[in-house]
Amino acid sequence: MVAENLQILRGEINQRKLVNNLFAVVGLIIILVSVLILLALILQLAINGWSRITPEFFTSFPSRRAENAGILSAWVGTSLVMLVTAFFAVPLGIASGVYLEEYARKNWLSALIEINVTNLAGVPSIIYGLLALGVFVYQFQLGESILAAGLTLALLILPVVIVTTREALRAIPNSLREAAYAMGASKWQMIWDHILPYSFGSILTGIIIGLSRAIGETAPVITIGALTFIAFLPDSPIKSEFPFISFEWLKAPFTLMPIQMFNWVSRPEPEFEVNAAAAGTVLLFMTLAMNGIAIFLRYRFRKGIKW
């Protein structure tokens, strides 16, 4: 009787191992197929637009002639808008995540806030555009400016940063907190000197994911009035006279790389499609550069913690 039960148990274990291995193989195949399709699309985009990626393409304004058109105003506008987005979203998102995870009491109010933050991460981006149109453009009178666009995209990625920060803090074992308290550290000292350094790598990953989403968004910025054709740059943030810093560029009109690509794709001439492919390749490299910086910083932080 015992031998029969052991035989049945071994059969069930072998069957579960077979199912587990089959699931792993199917998952690996799906991942490989998805990655190959993505690489094929990126390669096709790069091949189509590589002939237009020249120094003049980066230093020229958009033009009605495809051979003279460039992305100067688009990549400058994208860089400035992403700078404003990161300036507002990153500190506010990390601070909110730290408060909700380390300071907020675990009651119905914090549970309600957590549910709403999680749900906001999945809200369509056009909703944020409509919200920004009513609040930033009309209520705060910011107009169709870089500041309004940066705040709009900051709202868009803020839930992602908050959720990622909370998950990173939860991954830190409580023994580290208890050890810091045992050494006489205050709660803020424990968070600043121990919890945040160990969790910053994961937090940085969430920040880059949010910024990568924001850099490709079109609907929210079109809603608040982003231009599809612009042939001038904002004022320089650095001045030759005192106080040497100017914030007039925050009030300037703007355009973004996705909007410039959409403008070119909508034109009937095939030469503009080549320009759009080149702009898409540049946008991909900008996103990969942000991810590369994040990987480097994460490596440096983790190496510093180990030493």
Automatic annotation (TrEMBL):
Location in or out of the cell: Cell membrane
GO molecular function ontology, one term from the record: phosphate transmembrane transporter activity
Family, similarity comment: Belongs to the binding-protein-dependent transport system permease family. CysTW subfamily.
Parts of the chain that traverse the membrane: 21-47, 72-100, 120-140, 146-169, 190-209, 277-297
CDD domains referenced in this protein's UniProt entry, alphabetically: TM_PBP2 (cd06261)
Main location: membrane
PROSITE patterns: ABC_TM1
Domain (ABC transmembrane type-1) ranges: 75-294
Designated name of the protein: Phosphate transport system permease protein PstA
A Pfam family matched in the record: BPD_transp_1
Any one annotated GO CC term: plasma membrane
Membrane topology type: Multi-pass membrane protein
Keywords: Cell membrane, Membrane, Transmembrane, Transmembrane helix, Transport
A biological process from GO: phosphate ion transmembrane transport
